[in-house]
Amino acid sequence: MSRRFSKILVANRGEIACRIFRTAKEKGYATVAVYSDADADALHVAQADEAVRIGPPTPTESYLNMDAILEAAKRTGADAIHPGYGFLAENGDFAQACADAGITFIGPPPKAMADMGNKAAAKRLMAQADVPCVPGYDGESQDVAVLKAEAERIGFPLLVKAAAGGGGRGMRRVDSSDELDQAIAGAKSEAEKAFGSGELILEKLVEHGRHVEIQILADEHGTCIHLGERDCSVQRRHQKIIEESPCPIMTPELREKMGQAAVSAAQAVDYVNAGTVEFLLDADGSFYFLEMNTRLQVEHPVTEYVTGLDLVAMQLGIAQGQPLPENMHFDAPQGHGVEVRLYAEDPDNGFMPQTGTVVLWSPPDTVADHVRADHGLQSGDIISPYYDPMVAKIITHGATRDDALDAMVSALNETCLFGVTTNRELLLRILADTIFREGSATTDYLESSGLLDVEKSAPDMERQLVAAAVYIERDSASVPASLKGWRSTGMSHVPLRLEHDDEIIALQVTMQGDTYTLAQEDNEVTVVITNVTQHSVSWVSHDHHQHAQFAFDDTTLHIQYNGRLDTFNDVTYAPAEVKGAASDGRIKSPMAGLVVAVQAAPGDVVSKGDVLLIIEAMKMENRIVAPCDGTIVTVDVTEEQQVDPNQLLLQIEVTERENDE
User: Fold this and answer.
1) Rg of the Cα trace of the chain?
2) What are phi and psi of 96, to 5 degrees?
3) Which of 69, 622, 52, 60 is nearest to 386 (CA)?
């Protein structure tokens, strides 16, 4: 029986909340946002018809607070809740609490979530349903001795995985028995913090495989269909970075086999609504069940592009008891879809999560229907340490894979997020890489590609000069163009000292009107500035017209063009600083976060690379290692202490190496 609800509360934040609101409003529903103190001014709050505060910034006190969310629904009269992904999206207890409160949960039944929510139990169910599974251990005993014995039986390499979660958290690769103790302890600790359960399973590592998942839809009238696959093989630390559909090596026959296996998996637990069954696809065409995500996936827009469906709209219809359309069947994808995830993390600094203020957010132009940007950002937002580091998704579509990839390169070149370091340039490197462009990427591709180890070069003379020109243009904005650079004796010479990646660049710029020249040793570069707006500059050099986007944050300039972002700081009039703090043994926090483990004490002798502390930020544990050999002098933080970026953590007395000569 069809049942209509009128007001939808989205129990989530950021881009997925904005995404759900978009469809809900198109379908005529009233919308309610919830927010923590950290998100009071967030875009998803502004986009909803109503918004209710649910607690402090930490997820346990806000977005994981079932009572607060249900109370918000009661206060606003919301009669349906969409959980998005993450947080409570796969929490069967929350789904049941919604039902008990007379609120429609837009997702699967609680029992189906419980059946699939634990990887160990799910694998046992799948084996009974004749869905192929990866060889491993999914028993109830969590005794370390049992886990180690099972690991020896399975053989190395293998994966230690959290039974209760996903997203790369609580997962460790183990190549030998010597690594087991640390892997088990680390995975258990991370899983307990992320999912509230330290239960682990072991799986044989299928090397050079592909991560291929099948999107399914099921209604409560017994109909279950699949909508084809997504290839999610480009990953770092088991965290997806790029997803696409179709899989580059998929055949119609293999798609149907995997699709039917996914349908069987869903039917085995009486699944209803949208879900995704994840498989590991081996090079020989064999595939193995990994897990089922009982929710809408982050990468659902890829499927929307190649099917023409709005998956959120389908979820709303199913949740109202509507049957899937008669004879609905997936035959073949329409063109090719690609999605990239924009993470607030620093690839040049061990992918440390990044926090701070968004100086400028400018997504790509989405007027064309082949480019889409799902985000919850606006300039001035603060990226906090409390939530997932993914801040936006860019999705493109094309008639062919090359068309979609080329559109993605253009879209990323247009995308500007200044003030917080992101993985945008890494994404561009991947999109230009031969192995990826050939469609040959497997789950171990990125770690072995060398793309993670690329060192950023210093800015060339033209970049230095354009940056200098933008500074000068800003400072002379009130001067008529005819007088810029004018001196009674001729051209003007402007000295500048710009800091870039802790290096000082001394410049002597010659200018006359809109023409700027920089000479260094035997080289000379000249640019003619043709246009400057609030956030863009255009110039000509050697008959080459170029354009850059930029933004100022006081004396700091962020400027981006040709796929590269550079950040300069004008220190022309700043007092000289004494260098050496980075090499004097003081170790500072690279991020805001929570100290979850202190593994060093005053007097300890440590070697370069030893783990000293572990800081949890954005739901990931980040190891702080010794940068050199030495002896611990002081430890300036304690476990469970919240730290800020650049806060002193500990001090090492550096061991002087003897001169070999």
Assistant:
1) 27
2) -70, -40
3) 60
Clarify whether residues 89 and 160 are in a common domain.
Answer: no
- Phi, psi at 214, each rounded to 5°: -115, 125
For residues 92 and 98, give the distance between their C-alpha atoms in angstroms, rounded to a whole number.
Answer: 10
Residue with tokens 């009974």: 128
Residue 114 lies in a domain: no
Whether 314 and 413 share a structural domain: yes
In DSSP notation, 234-255 reads: EEETTEEEEEEES-TT--HHHH
Residue 419 DSSP SS3:
coil
The CATH number of residue 639's host domain is: 2.40.50.100
Instruction: For 60-70, give one letter per residue: b (16+ CB within 10 A) or e.
Output: eebbbbeebbb
Does 232 reside within a domain?
yes
**389 prior amide bond cis, ω within 30:** no
Residue (of 301, 360, 291, 369) closest to 117 by Cα position:
291
Element (H, E) at 153: helix 144-154
Query: What is the per-residue burial (b if ≥16 Cβ within 10 Å, else e) of 228-262?
Result: bbbbbbbbbebbbbbbbbbbbebeeebbeebbebb
**Do β-strands 287-293 and 136-137 pair in parallel, antiparallel, or remain unpaired?**
unpaired
The DSSP symbol for 655 reads P
Are 476 and 359 contained in the same domain? no
Among 35-44, 244-253, 601-610, where is mean pLDDT lowest? Answer: 601-610
284 and 411 share one domain: yes
Q: What share of the chain is helix, strand, coil (3-state, %, to 5)?
A: 30, 35, 40
Residue 268, CB-side half-sphere exposure with 13 Å CA sphere: 22
The partner residues of 86 in beta bridges, in order of sequence, read none
Angle subtended by helix axes 300-307 and 311-319, to nearest 10:
100
Residue range 598-602: mean pLDDT, rounded: 93
Catalytic, out of 13, 19, 295, 424: 295
Q: Based on the fold, state whether residues 435 and 303 are members of the same structural domain.
A: yes
The answer on 526 and 412 residing in a single domain is no
The residue count for the chain: 661
Report the chain's terminal Cα–Cα distance, integer Å. Answer: 86
CATH of the domain at 191: 3.30.1490.20
| pTM metric for this prediction | 0.86
In Å, what is the CA distance from 260 to each residue of 112, 277, 305?
18, 11, 22
Q: Is the pLDDT of residue 176 over 90?
A: yes
> Residue 518 pairs with which residues in a beta bridge?
509, 525
| 288 falls within a domain | yes
Q: What is the mean pLDDT of residues 140-160?
A: 94
295 part of the active site: yes
- The DSSP letter of residue 48 is S
For residue 531, give its domain range. 461-570
Amino acid letter, 656: E
In this structure, the answer to whether residues 153 and 250 fall within a common structural domain is no
Q: Could you give the angle at the alpha carbon of 339 between the alpha carbons of 336 and 343, nearest 5°?
A: 170
Within the chain, what is the greatest distance between any pair of CA atoms? 90
Does 215 reside within a domain?
A: yes
- For 504-561, how does the pLDDT look when each residue is reduced to its tens digit (9 = 90+)? 999 999 999 899 999 988 899 999 999 999 999 999 999 999 999 999 999 999 999 9
Q: Answer yes or no: do 244 and 381 share one domain.
A: yes
Q: Which residues pair with 390 in a beta bridge?
A: 343
